[in-house]
Amino acid sequence: MKFNIAIDTCAIIHLMYIKRFYLLKELGYSVLTTIYVQLEFEKGHFNSKEYFFNLLNKGEIYCYPLEIDDLVEMANIPQSRQASDAELSCFVLAKRLGGKAMTDDGNAIDYIQRYFSMPPESVITLFDVLFEAYLTYWLLDHELRSIQSTLGDKKFNFQYEDLASECARRRLMIKA
What we know:
59% helix, 5-stranded parallel beta sheet, alpha/beta, 9% strand, 2 domains, single chain
């Protein structure tokens, strides 16, 4: 395995929408989450709740226990609507395990990183996973366009007008 990824609610839901959760395993990640993410799913819509618990039951994702020190570290960050306990717990867990935190909430990333020191490469988004999958040929241009369309229909937009073009541009920059 490359890294542990502590994944939050919105990232799981986005992977559910595009039916690509398997990419994390194919890319060599061990997927973890926390009780706070589980609690959000327990209060959520039936489809996402069922999807999440299916992942748990199949062993695709593991609900990793938080330690007292994790909770203390979470308590040291001021409560804010910009970052939920679910997002914050994923950051704390990733930091403790030396892994990565995955969320698609830019406001939460900005807020948490004001109070919490983690290397920038330790926080990833769905774009980062899709780009890595593109680099390793798990995804092709037409699949990226389909993914972008599907997520756009669900009101999630990437900062790039054409995801496939951006990934191709970045791949060329790496190879140059």
